[in-house]
């Protein structure tokens, strides 16, 4: 499983992030993060997309839109 954590960012809330989804990248809920992942796969191909995401996480393109997509390594807690 390629595990990720998707959080919504709200600078006026406490805490500023709220976990929306944690699980396999292919199970992301519909929305900007899933669209981002599909675009990365289309551009880099299935083989390299995950490595790209691991290197870039959390992607700034999503942070600017109020989302954080992080790769969860084994042993990381939510």
Describe the model.
- This protein is an alpha+beta fold.
- It is built from 2 helices and 3 strands.
- A hairpin with a 7-residue loop joins strand 1 and strand 2 (17-24).
- The relative contact order is 0.25.
Relevant terms:
3-stranded antiparallel β-sheet; single chain; alpha+beta; 78 residues; globular; 2 helices; 3 strands
Describe the structure in brief.
37% of the residues lie in helices and 26% in strands.
Mean pLDDT: 90
Helix coverage percent of residues? 25-40%
SSE sequence, one letter per element: EEHHE
Q: Give the overall silhouette.
A: globular
Count helical runs. Answer: 2
Give the structural class. Answer: alpha+beta
Query: Termini separation (Å)?
Result: 16 Å
What are the segments in which pLDDT stays under 50 over at least 5 consecutive residues? none
Oligomer: single chain
Strand content: 25-35%
Strand order of the largest sheet: 2-1-3
Main beta sheet: strand number and arrangement?
A: 3 strands, antiparallel
Overall radius of gyration: 12 Å
- Strand tally: 3
Topology:
Blueprint: E1 3-9, E2 17-24, H1 32-56, H2 60-63, E3 67-71
Antiparallel strand pairs: 1-2, 1-3
């Amino acid at each position: 499983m390629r595990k990720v954590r998707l959080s919504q960012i709200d600078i006026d809330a406490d805490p500023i992030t709220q976990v929306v989804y944690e699980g396999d990248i292919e199970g992301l809920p519909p929305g900007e993060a899933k669209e981002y992942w599909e675009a990365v796969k289309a551009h880099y191909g299935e083989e390299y997309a995950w490595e790209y995401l691991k290197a870039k996480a959390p992607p700034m393109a999503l942070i600017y839109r109020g989302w954080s997509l992080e790769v969860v390594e084994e042993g990381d807690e939510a």
